[in-house]
Sequence to fold (305 residues):
Amino acid sequence: MREEIVKLLERENKLSDDALSEIKNIEINDFSNIVKEVGNEETDYIKKSEIQKDLNTQYIGKELYVFKEVASTNTVAKFLSMHNVANGTVVISEKQTQAKGRSGKSWESPLGGVWLSIILKPNVDQSKFPMITLATGVAVAKTLEKIGVEEPEIKWPNDIMINGKKICGILTEAIAKFNTVENVIIGVGIDANLDVSQFPKELQAGTTTLKEELKREGNENLLIKIFLEEFEKISELFNHEGYEVILKEWRKRSYSIGKIVEVREPFNTYYDGYVVGINKEGALIVEKIDGTLKKVISGECIIKN
Ligand code: BTN
Fold:
């Protein structure tokens, strides 16, 4: 992580040659102030002032850092979460050079998309962690509905789909201490003002973008503002144990329930089954061919019909 942060500062010309050669002696704490300084500088497309103007939230996005380019907003957010930032701090970048997807995959992040990470300090038991992920999917779906997308759906655990094509991915990472989640980094990537042709060939058939769906370019700053507001509403439900409401909203938009899937659990356990639903822990309930029910907590779920 240290290396990535140094690279970020190098790119921004924030470190003199002398400083670079002495870098080994610099306290990591000193970096955090410089990172915050860079994140407060004027950017070209994503504008902190526009996002925060009339932003109707109590804490989400009140502290906001916007960068022109970082390796991954999740990494910068993870770093900042250890250096005195408020609950609900948001890190955005216009581009990412080494963005992370789920299951160790990479994530395409050219200029034009919305790439952001939210730092939450929820202080909840680790068992509640999947619920934060589901709640984020609901917030993205509601945001898309607000800007005119018809019937976005959520593929378990939290890919947002339009007509069977993925438009958004979410990567949640927890920093836990003694079974309690101290910090959660919620990384959200929305393919906004992009053309599908900008993606690698092998991803094109399964990908869509807001520009393709709405047949026009949209305002990314407005999209982010609406998302932060929707996110705060749903995280308030989470904070007050409104899990049933979150699940209801999720189930209403489910792309997975009622489908035949191939489940790929960690450590290479693969099997086919029928998706019966999600339970109150946020796990997917799959009926295997032999009739037994499986509870899937993590892994991939590939739709077969
Ligand atoms: C997925 O594989 O579906 C999850 C993709 C998550 C991408 C977002 S973009 C912002 C944040 N920073 C990252 O490096 N990844 C997440």
Q: What stands out?
A: Residues 220-239 form the longest helix (20 residues). The first strand starts at residue 64 and ends at 70. The chain has a mean pLDDT of 90. The chain has two domains: 44-252, 260-303.
